[in-house]
Here is the input.
Amino acid sequence: MKKTGKTYLLDTNIIIDLFSNDLDVLEKLSNAKFTIPSVVIGELYFGANVSKQLELRVNQIEEFTLGCEVISIDQATSKLYGKIKAQLKNDGTPIPENDVWIAALACQHNFVLVTRDKHFDKPKGVKVEFW
Here is the structure.
């Protein structure tokens, strides 16, 4: 099967489900171009460090990220972060801080954000698919 023209930006919960061998996620990602925000990798390492299976979790993260493109925050991301955070505040619909950064990266790079968190429908201009 051919990879689609879209590039997906993976949220933390999608990667966790991938690590849990979620067949739906495995199938969708097998035919997709995707990238990971550095913020998500930080969230994964946090989860590993509070897990009872630290070594296993760290190994999963390191193996997975070896073959992945990782994107980081820069000044353009920061500008979009400020815009999105202000929009959410003005609308009275705050979302977790790291998720504002993830939304900003999705907007900046015109990626489709893949998540299971419904609050990602709050930031305007973010293309989201709920898997």
